[in-house]
Amino acid sequence: MKICSWNVRGCNNPLKFKEVIDFFKVNKVDVMGILETKIREHKAARVINRYVCGLKVVCNYNVLGNGRIWLVWNPRTVTVLPITSYPQFVHCVITHHGSNSTCFGSFVYASNDPTIRIGLWDSLRSLNVTQEWLVLGDFNVVRDASERISISLPNLADILDFNSCLLSCGLVDLQSTRVWSKLDRALVNGAWFSNFGSPVVAFLPSGMSDHSSVLVSVLPAHYRPLRFSFLNYWSSFPGFQSLIHET
């Protein structure tokens, strides 16, 4: 199962939105949070009908008019049950058809205003999730000054607020390559590691945005790659040696 988030920095250009959907399909993403679409609600249906054929879409227009978060998924591979929408994140349950595994997913696009972000931290705490939980997106704040390569230092109070939220929620930051300012990230709780093990996280080239997409590849904890075993008696089969030489 592949779960992704990407701050696309606006998708009013049809070609730009098409690039996002092409990214979804090429990378075989199952669920994707498209952040900061800037697509107005009255244009959403037209965009969806034209470019999102065969996929399911949920937007948080009910709590914010400018479509900050679009949740897109492939109904052939996953079932997504949206639970609630907030101005700064969408919370849902994701069930993967192939493995029948289920997890909670929260797709975040945090405000640039630290006073408004306090509401995000409080809302995440209020979810009280104890089952497998993945939280990913653009948090608009770093966890440590070392995550930001800049002359100006980040605000310490903002860092403390963010880390306090993660501690309260039992969320762990998944490892990733360093970027200019680590605002985009993926986090999981302890139950996740027990059932899914350590996911593979990739921060892909930003492309038409100035943010990297966050792509999380999930495998059940019991998954092990199949190993090839050579059985000696195969060499006694007629034509075995000639087949080896041909290949």
UniProtKB/TrEMBL annotation:
<feature type="domain" description="Endonuclease/exonuclease/phosphatase">
    <location>
        <begin position="4"/>
        <end position="211"/>
    </location>
</feature>
<dbReference type="Pfam" id="PF03372">
    <property type="entry name" value="Exo_endo_phos"/>
</dbReference>
<dbReference type="GO" id="GO:0003824">
    <property type="term" value="F:catalytic activity"/>
</dbReference>
<protein>
    <recommendedName>
        <fullName>Endonuclease/exonuclease/phosphatase domain-containing protein</fullName>
    </recommendedName>
</protein>
<dbReference type="InterPro" id="IPR005135">
    <property type="entry name" value="Endo/exonuclease/phosphatase"/>
</dbReference>
<dbReference type="InterPro" id="IPR036691">
    <property type="entry name" value="Endo/exonu/phosph_ase_sf"/>
</dbReference>
